[in-house]
Amino acid sequence: MMKTMRAACMLLVLFLVGCQTELYTGVSQKEGNEMLSILLSEGVVATKEPDKDNTVKLMVDNAQIAFAVDALKRKGYPREQFSTLKEVFPKDDLISSPLAERARLIYAKSQELSSTLSQIDGVLVARVHVVLEDQNLRPGERPTPASASVFIKHAADVALDSYVPQIKLLVNNSIEGLNYDRISVVMVPSSEVRVTAQGNQFESILSIQVTKDTASHLIAILVFLVLLVIGSNAATFAWCRRNAKRG
Protein backbone atom coordinates (compact mmCIF):
# COMPACT_ATOMS: atom_id res chain seq x y z
CA MET A 1 0.00 0.00 0.00
CA MET A 2 2.76 2.43 0.95
CA LYS A 3 4.71 1.58 -2.19
CA THR A 4 1.63 2.29 -4.28
CA MET A 5 1.08 5.68 -2.64
CA ARG A 6 4.75 6.51 -3.04
CA ALA A 7 4.59 5.66 -6.73
CA ALA A 8 1.44 7.75 -7.10
CA CYS A 9 3.10 10.77 -5.50
CA MET A 10 6.14 10.35 -7.73
CA LEU A 11 3.93 10.31 -10.81
CA LEU A 12 2.18 13.47 -9.66
CA VAL A 13 5.48 15.25 -9.00
CA LEU A 14 6.85 14.19 -12.37
CA PHE A 15 3.72 15.53 -14.02
CA LEU A 16 4.00 18.92 -12.34
CA VAL A 17 7.71 19.20 -13.11
CA GLY A 18 7.28 17.97 -16.66
CA CYS A 19 4.83 20.77 -17.41
CA GLN A 20 7.52 23.41 -16.86
CA THR A 21 10.38 24.52 -19.08
CA GLU A 22 13.41 26.77 -18.64
CA LEU A 23 12.66 30.42 -19.30
CA TYR A 24 16.01 32.01 -18.35
CA THR A 25 19.23 30.46 -17.06
CA GLY A 26 22.38 31.90 -15.52
CA VAL A 27 20.50 34.70 -13.76
CA SER A 28 21.92 36.30 -10.60
CA GLN A 29 20.20 35.60 -7.29
CA LYS A 30 19.00 39.20 -6.93
CA GLU A 31 17.68 39.50 -10.48
CA GLY A 32 16.14 36.03 -10.26
CA ASN A 33 14.16 37.02 -7.17
CA GLU A 34 12.94 40.20 -8.88
CA MET A 35 11.92 38.34 -12.04
CA LEU A 36 10.16 35.61 -10.05
CA SER A 37 8.23 38.25 -8.11
CA ILE A 38 7.07 39.87 -11.37
CA LEU A 39 5.97 36.56 -12.85
CA LEU A 40 4.02 35.54 -9.76
CA SER A 41 2.32 38.94 -9.58
CA GLU A 42 1.25 38.47 -13.22
CA GLY A 43 -0.31 35.10 -12.41
CA VAL A 44 2.40 33.01 -14.06
CA VAL A 45 3.12 29.58 -12.59
CA ALA A 46 6.88 29.97 -12.07
CA THR A 47 9.62 28.52 -9.90
CA LYS A 48 13.28 29.34 -9.26
CA GLU A 49 15.94 26.62 -9.20
CA PRO A 50 19.70 26.66 -8.55
CA ASP A 51 21.95 26.85 -11.61
CA LYS A 52 25.71 26.70 -12.13
CA ASP A 53 28.19 29.33 -10.85
CA ASN A 54 25.91 30.44 -8.00
CA THR A 55 23.20 31.57 -10.41
CA VAL A 56 19.57 30.53 -10.76
CA LYS A 57 17.20 29.55 -13.54
CA LEU A 58 13.52 30.36 -13.88
CA MET A 59 11.00 27.67 -14.80
CA VAL A 60 7.52 28.42 -16.13
CA ASP A 61 4.54 26.49 -17.42
CA ASN A 62 4.94 25.49 -21.06
CA ALA A 63 1.72 27.24 -22.04
CA GLN A 64 2.82 30.52 -20.43
CA ILE A 65 6.21 31.08 -22.08
CA ALA A 66 5.07 33.85 -24.43
CA PHE A 67 3.13 35.65 -21.71
CA ALA A 68 6.02 35.32 -19.22
CA VAL A 69 8.59 36.72 -21.67
CA ASP A 70 6.30 39.65 -22.47
CA ALA A 71 5.59 40.36 -18.79
CA LEU A 72 9.32 40.51 -17.99
CA LYS A 73 10.14 42.52 -21.11
CA ARG A 74 7.63 45.21 -20.13
CA LYS A 75 9.46 45.54 -16.82
CA GLY A 76 12.91 45.66 -18.45
CA TYR A 77 14.00 42.12 -17.58
CA PRO A 78 16.35 40.43 -17.89
CA ARG A 79 18.63 43.41 -17.27
CA GLU A 80 21.34 44.07 -19.85
CA GLN A 81 24.89 43.30 -18.81
CA PHE A 82 27.31 46.22 -19.14
CA SER A 83 31.10 46.15 -19.40
CA THR A 84 33.11 47.19 -16.36
CA LEU A 85 36.43 49.04 -16.17
CA LYS A 86 38.12 45.76 -15.24
CA GLU A 87 36.78 44.10 -18.40
CA VAL A 88 37.72 47.00 -20.67
CA PHE A 89 41.21 47.33 -19.16
CA PRO A 90 42.46 43.78 -18.42
CA LYS A 91 45.71 43.50 -16.47
CA ASP A 92 47.58 41.68 -19.25
CA ASP A 93 46.52 44.15 -21.97
CA LEU A 94 49.15 45.66 -24.27
CA ILE A 95 50.01 49.36 -24.06
CA SER A 96 48.11 51.42 -26.64
CA SER A 97 48.15 55.06 -27.72
CA PRO A 98 46.91 57.79 -25.34
CA LEU A 99 43.95 58.49 -27.64
CA ALA A 100 42.96 54.83 -27.71
CA GLU A 101 43.30 54.63 -23.94
CA ARG A 102 41.07 57.67 -23.50
CA ALA A 103 38.50 56.26 -25.92
CA ARG A 104 38.38 52.98 -24.00
CA LEU A 105 38.11 54.85 -20.71
CA ILE A 106 35.19 56.91 -22.05
CA TYR A 107 33.52 53.72 -23.30
CA ALA A 108 33.92 52.06 -19.92
CA LYS A 109 32.46 55.10 -18.18
CA SER A 110 29.56 55.13 -20.66
CA GLN A 111 28.85 51.52 -19.80
CA GLU A 112 28.91 52.24 -16.08
CA LEU A 113 26.66 55.28 -16.54
CA SER A 114 24.21 53.19 -18.57
CA SER A 115 24.19 50.60 -15.81
CA THR A 116 23.60 53.29 -13.17
CA LEU A 117 20.73 54.88 -15.10
CA SER A 118 19.16 51.44 -15.54
CA GLN A 119 18.71 51.28 -11.77
CA ILE A 120 16.22 54.18 -11.78
CA ASP A 121 12.70 52.92 -11.12
CA GLY A 122 10.77 52.70 -14.37
CA VAL A 123 13.80 52.69 -16.68
CA LEU A 124 13.69 49.81 -19.15
CA VAL A 125 16.66 50.66 -21.39
CA ALA A 126 19.46 53.19 -20.84
CA ARG A 127 22.26 54.18 -23.21
CA VAL A 128 24.97 56.82 -22.93
CA HIS A 129 26.85 57.78 -26.11
CA VAL A 130 29.89 60.05 -25.86
CA VAL A 131 31.61 61.81 -28.78
CA LEU A 132 35.17 62.86 -28.00
CA GLU A 133 36.79 66.08 -29.12
CA ASP A 134 38.63 65.58 -32.40
CA GLN A 135 42.37 65.70 -31.77
CA ASN A 136 43.46 65.37 -35.42
CA LEU A 137 42.88 68.94 -36.59
CA ARG A 138 44.40 70.82 -39.45
CA PRO A 139 46.05 74.18 -38.80
CA GLY A 140 43.41 76.83 -38.25
CA GLU A 141 40.55 74.38 -37.62
CA ARG A 142 38.50 74.83 -34.48
CA PRO A 143 37.98 71.69 -32.40
CA THR A 144 34.44 70.42 -31.92
CA PRO A 145 33.73 70.16 -28.19
CA ALA A 146 32.95 66.75 -26.75
CA SER A 147 29.28 65.89 -26.43
CA ALA A 148 27.09 63.17 -24.96
CA SER A 149 23.66 61.80 -25.74
CA VAL A 150 21.55 59.88 -23.26
CA PHE A 151 18.74 57.62 -24.44
CA ILE A 152 16.22 56.30 -21.93
CA LYS A 153 13.25 54.07 -22.64
CA HIS A 154 10.93 53.97 -19.66
CA ALA A 155 7.62 52.47 -18.59
CA ALA A 156 4.65 54.41 -19.93
CA ASP A 157 3.15 54.87 -16.47
CA VAL A 158 6.32 56.44 -15.02
CA ALA A 159 7.20 60.13 -15.57
CA LEU A 160 10.96 60.75 -15.61
CA ASP A 161 11.14 64.23 -17.17
CA SER A 162 11.92 65.78 -13.80
CA TYR A 163 15.09 63.66 -13.64
CA VAL A 164 16.65 65.18 -16.77
CA PRO A 165 18.75 67.82 -14.91
CA GLN A 166 20.06 65.19 -12.47
CA ILE A 167 20.87 62.81 -15.32
CA LYS A 168 22.79 65.51 -17.19
CA LEU A 169 24.65 66.45 -14.01
CA LEU A 170 25.56 62.80 -13.40
CA VAL A 171 26.99 62.44 -16.90
CA ASN A 172 28.75 65.82 -16.70
CA ASN A 173 30.49 64.94 -13.44
CA SER A 174 31.48 61.46 -14.64
CA ILE A 175 33.27 62.39 -17.88
CA GLU A 176 36.15 64.86 -17.82
CA GLY A 177 36.05 67.73 -20.31
CA LEU A 178 32.33 67.41 -21.02
CA ASN A 179 30.22 70.57 -20.86
CA TYR A 180 26.78 70.41 -19.23
CA ASP A 181 25.20 72.22 -22.19
CA ARG A 182 26.60 69.62 -24.61
CA ILE A 183 24.58 66.80 -23.03
CA SER A 184 21.21 65.84 -24.47
CA VAL A 185 18.68 63.48 -22.91
CA VAL A 186 15.97 61.71 -24.89
CA MET A 187 13.09 60.08 -23.00
CA VAL A 188 10.93 57.56 -24.87
CA PRO A 189 7.91 55.92 -23.18
CA SER A 190 7.39 52.25 -23.85
CA SER A 191 4.23 51.12 -25.61
CA GLU A 192 2.28 48.87 -23.27
CA VAL A 193 1.49 45.95 -25.57
CA ARG A 194 0.23 43.06 -23.52
CA VAL A 195 0.11 39.54 -24.85
CA THR A 196 -3.09 37.66 -24.12
CA ALA A 197 -1.95 34.16 -23.44
CA GLN A 198 -4.00 31.07 -22.73
CA GLY A 199 -1.45 30.26 -20.06
CA ASN A 200 -2.83 33.10 -17.96
CA GLN A 201 -6.12 31.22 -17.37
CA PHE A 202 -6.12 28.85 -14.42
CA GLU A 203 -8.22 26.15 -12.86
CA SER A 204 -8.04 24.81 -9.33
CA ILE A 205 -7.97 21.03 -9.03
CA LEU A 206 -7.70 19.72 -5.46
CA SER A 207 -6.16 23.08 -4.44
CA ILE A 208 -3.55 22.77 -7.21
CA GLN A 209 -3.42 25.77 -9.56
CA VAL A 210 -2.94 24.58 -13.15
CA THR A 211 -3.53 26.08 -16.56
CA LYS A 212 -6.52 25.02 -18.63
CA ASP A 213 -4.19 23.34 -21.12
CA THR A 214 -2.81 20.99 -18.47
CA ALA A 215 -5.98 20.55 -16.40
CA SER A 216 -7.28 17.64 -18.48
CA HIS A 217 -3.92 15.86 -18.23
CA LEU A 218 -3.87 16.30 -14.46
CA ILE A 219 -7.43 14.97 -14.15
CA ALA A 220 -6.50 11.92 -16.23
CA ILE A 221 -3.48 11.23 -14.03
CA LEU A 222 -5.51 11.67 -10.84
CA VAL A 223 -8.16 9.26 -12.14
CA PHE A 224 -5.42 6.78 -13.01
CA LEU A 225 -3.91 7.13 -9.54
CA VAL A 226 -7.29 6.57 -7.88
CA LEU A 227 -7.90 3.46 -9.97
CA LEU A 228 -4.38 2.28 -9.17
CA VAL A 229 -4.97 2.66 -5.43
CA ILE A 230 -8.38 0.94 -5.65
CA GLY A 231 -6.93 -1.91 -7.68
CA SER A 232 -4.02 -2.29 -5.28
CA ASN A 233 -6.34 -2.37 -2.27
CA ALA A 234 -8.62 -4.88 -3.97
CA ALA A 235 -5.68 -7.13 -4.81
CA THR A 236 -4.37 -6.88 -1.25
CA PHE A 237 -7.83 -7.68 0.18
CA ALA A 238 -8.23 -10.71 -2.13
CA TRP A 239 -4.78 -11.99 -1.22
CA CYS A 240 -5.46 -11.66 2.53
CA ARG A 241 -8.85 -13.36 2.18
CA ARG A 242 -7.33 -16.26 0.24
CA ASN A 243 -4.64 -16.75 2.89
CA ALA A 244 -7.27 -16.61 5.64
CA LYS A 245 -9.27 -19.42 4.00
CA ARG A 246 -6.16 -21.55 3.65
CA GLY A 247 -5.33 -20.98 7.29
Structural class: alpha+beta
Q: What assembly state would you assign to the polypeptide chains in this entry?
A: single chain
Average pLDDT, all residues? 77
Largest sheet: 3 strands, antiparallel
Q: What number of domains?
A: 2
What's the helical proportion of residues?
Answer: 40-55%
Q: Would you list the SSEs in sequence order as H and E?
A: HEHEEHHHEEHEEEH
Q: How many E strands?
A: 8
Annotation field: number of helices:
7
Q: Uncertain runs with pLDDT below 50, 5 residues or more?
A: 193-200
The fold-level CATH name of the largest domain is: Alpha-Beta Plaits
Shape: elongated
Could you explain the architecture of this structure?
The protein has 247 residues and is of the alpha+beta class. The protein has two domains: 2-77 and 211-246, Hypothetical protein rpa1041 (Alpha-Beta Plaits, 2-Layer Sandwich), CATH 3.30.70; 85-189, ANL, C-terminal domain (GMP Synthetase, Chain A, domain 3, 2-Layer Sandwich), CATH 3.30.300.30. The chain has helices at residues 2-18, 29-41, 65-74, 85-88, 98-117, 164-174, 212-246, and strands at residues 20-27, 46-50, 56-61, 123-131, 147-154, 183-189, 202-205, 208-211. The strands form three sheets. Strands 1-3-2 form a three-stranded antiparallel β-sheet. α1 packs antiparallel against α7. The longest helix is centred in the C-terminal third of the chain and has 35 residues, at 212-246. Mean pLDDT is 77; it is low at 193-200.
